[in-house]
Amino acid sequence: MSFPTHRPRRLRRTATIRAMVRETTLTPDRFIAPLFVTTGTGVRRGIAAMPGCDQMSVDVTVDECRSLADVGVSGVILFGIPDSKDPHGYGAADPDGPVPQALTAIRAACPTLSLWADVCLCEYTDHGHCGPLATAPTGEVVVDNDAALPRLAEAARCYAKAGADVVAPSDMMDGRVAAIRAALDADGRSDVAIVSYAAKYASAFYGPFREAAGSAPSFGDRRSYQMDPANAREALAEVETDIAEGADVIMVKPALAYLDVIRRVRDHVHVPVAAYNVSGEYSMIKAAAANGWLDEPRAILEVLTSIRRAGADIILTYFAKEAARLLG
Ligand code: PBG
Question: Which CATH code for domain 25-327?
Answer without folding.
Answer: 3.20.20.70
